[in-house]
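Async update (no meeting this week)

Hi team, since we skipped the sync, here's where things stand on the single-chain job. The sequence we agreed to prioritize is pasted below, unchanged from the tracker. I ran it this morning and attached the output directly underneath so nobody has to dig for it. Comments welcome in thread, and please keep replies under the output.
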Amino acid sequence: MCSILCCFVGSQIAAQGAAAAAAGRVGRAGKMAEKRRPMCCTITMIVLAILLLALAGVLLIWFPISLFPAMVKSQIPLVEREDGSYTKLTGFWQKLPQIAKYDFYFFNITNQDEMIYEGAKPHLVEVGPYSYLETEFKEGIEWLDDKTKVHYRSNKTWVWNPDTSCAGCREDDIVTLPNTAYATTMAMKVQNDMTDASILDLLLQATGEGPTSSETVAGMLFAAYDDALLDPHHADNESHCLTVPCSNHLPQSSNRVLSSNLTKLLVSIGGDGTLGGMPVPDVPYMGYLPHYNHTNDEDYILRTGQDDPLMAFQIQQWAGMDKLRWWSGEAAEINGAGDGTFYKPFLEKGDKLKNFQSFSCRAFDMTATKSTTWADIEALTFEFDDDAYDSNKEHNIGYRYENKEYIDYFPDWPACKPTHKYQPWNLPPEQCESVDCRFDYNFCNDCCDGSHYERTIFMPPGIVPLRCFPGMNKDLPFAGFLSPPHFSQSPSQVHETMVGLHPDPAKHRIGQWWINPTTGGTVHALFNMQLSIPIYNDPSFMMTTHMRNCFLPSFWSGIEANLKPYAHNFIYFSAETAPIIAMAIGWSSLILAVIFVAISYCCYRRAGRKAVDQEVLLPQSYSYNVTIEDEKDKDRVVMIKHTADIEHRRESPAQKYPELYAKDTSAQSSLSWKSRTLNQEGEAWS
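Output:
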């Protein structure tokens, strides 16, 4: 095998010697060619092997450890070139290469009369999905602090998509939901510590408002709707905002809530611009996302990563805040959170990230739980913490609802044992001193009164308040609450207060993020969120006198984001294909290097064996005694001797042709050759 490899690789080097031997010219040129052939073969193979080993070392060791990470880090920062253009990744960040599908499911109230007048449990029927496709781009971009930070706004557009909506679903379908105008009026009493709400109840009765409202899907969502408490004749009412562009920002001082002619009359009587001493809430339009189409969230300030790529895409401020004013403690922190699109590169399993969702006006903690793939792209699956909506945990206490109305919406929770008795006055004082009744693990302690604590009542897990208009630094004028769909993370005592809930932990989870660990880019995302509005029994308002305390879900939205094909292809090539190509070339180089080393070794061994035959097995110091029977064999004998001197074979002539040799035991240790076979053997040796 070695002879074959040597002859194949060194065929050009050996051509001259082979031709000379075939012609019988065993002269000086032929001898030199025979000597150079194996040496040239060995040197050539060693040089090639060294070059290939160097290439393999670069691609298999240096490339994955140092070179590739350095290349990725160089592309991560947000950069604006001198000509005003953006780098590839910055372009993706400026105009997100994804389409998000918003599926809205409404909880249609089917027994509103029984609920209002007879105190019946609400009967809910989920309808939907009503689907909208959302795209966004960043505008108002300003580079700050030597381009280590960037200021921007995120402009969002929604388009009705009947193809992914439920069969027969239309934007003009009518749904019956909690009335936000009524809830706002009830909240005015609580916020202003009113004991007598007669003026508010008069206003509601005069305008025909009730605890529920029946409107179109479009009106409840983006198009807004006219309400009796609003002035129906305001000039800039854009009721078809999904097809006609809206202004870039929601009006900040429109004072449209409670702006009917009756309200204006009552406000004018006071003379101070208030309604009986109460400030009039500043709400532009009625609806859950009124006129949000073609509008911006609040302003962001983000780290660009130019000073440190591992700090790229971290939010520094939102709406001018580095701590959200609605929350306290850890809950208020957004510094270092991402907006859900891009995160730092080189993520690993077990890493934790903060995901800021502007429509929730809060950040969520996520943990990388497993490695997977999405659409053939390597990804880490990030799960939201299970207690993200549990304000009874110590680290989430900043999300707790004050419950100024002091309503126990879920009186059967917590389900303490029958032996639990709240009688701290009958217990030794030192027994209750170390018991903190603010946290759920002590609710059923005899020192604590369940969910009741001082002048508030805590909410069960799975529910936290919504403090702002979605995406706006603007207080919500009524009590709104966020949760997973169907209160899927709440105890059964919550589900039992209404009819029609069907929580499914798999379908109604908070969400998941699939992030490519190399680039930190989100390749797929799911996020679910439900909005609920409480309407409770309050004798100050005639329409709620017979109602039970209702915690009514309005709708939930399932958001799914996917990359556009061109962005998918770019990330796939950058994070998957390029490293595979480098690895394949590296391993191929290593294998070829091994082959060339083997060839050079074979050539070296072949040269070594010839040297042994010449210098060891037939040393020229031996004397040869030849008996010649025929005078014509003299020349043959001389040729055999010289041929044996230069022959390079595995075996010596004596070993290969034992019948030609007879070992003499004389003192001279000479060899006697039998001449009878010399005629043909000499030729065979040449």
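Quick observations from my side:
Residues 343 and 520 are 5 Å apart (CA to CA).
The chain has a mean pLDDT of 81.
Reply here if anything looks off.
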